[in-house]
Amino acid sequence: MNLQKIKHYIAEYKKHLQSKRNFDEGYKWESLQVFQDNWNIEAADFVKMYDASFQNSETRRLWKGDNFFPKEMMMKFIKISPDFVRNMFRDLFNENKDIESRISRFQFCCDSLLNEYKSKFPLTIENRHFHIENHMISMYLCFRYPQQYSFFEYAFFKQAMENIGVTNLPTQFDIARFFKVARTLNTFLQKDLELINLQKKKLRPEIHFMDDTLLIVNDFYSFIANLNHF
Question: What does the pLDDT read at residue 33?
Fold first, then answer.
């Protein structure tokens, strides 16, 4: 990473936060707080708990879009095999295990559940579970351990890293390396107390997650990637 470029973009991001523009990333901070308030792996009604954990008053774009509905698919999986899915999440969230292996197992289990779902409902048009691309898995991890993980939105991340001067970028599927880069960026951001305070002023304590989180890294690299659009 080019330290001078990072400092430049931090300064630009602070200018952005000081402006009167709306904070367009707030919906992520709200969803993080909703998850923290509702997630309970031991809940008797697992599908109801899962549904309640992924809600937002502004938008559903994190889990629903054009040809993108991972939340709906996971709820279908839970309905056909709730204990299996419960154990999938237990394993994914087990910080005593290697992160790459956890993610790989989670995706393999999603593949298996998709095959099971298609065998139970042979007329279904569903042929994807939307967890291979790592967006949803990074969201699960970020929401469960907000001080350890950030969102992986590859197109924005790739553009931002190119702007910063990073060579040998992680690929779209190299999420473990992405998390390492995110933690490095977070170290730079956390050292700038003015930036942290400006960020928190954009949040609303009644609905947003207010503790430290690597979600700020996602906001930062999304800003860099879209800087010419602001």
Answer: 98
Hey, what are 74's tokens?
A: 């996971």
What is the chain's Cα-based Rg?
Answer: 18
* Distance, CA of 183 to CA of 200 (rounded, Å): 19
The pLDDT of residue 128 is: 87
The whole-angstrom separation of Cα 79 and Cα 81 is 6
Instruction: Specify the pLDDT at position 13.
Output: 94
DSSP 83-144: HHHHHHHHHHT-TTS-HHHHHHHHHHHHHHHHHHHHHHSTT------S-SSSHHHHHHHHHH
Confidence band for 228, pLDDT divided at 50, 70 and 90: low
* 35 three-state secondary structure: helix
Widest distance between CA atoms in the chain: 56
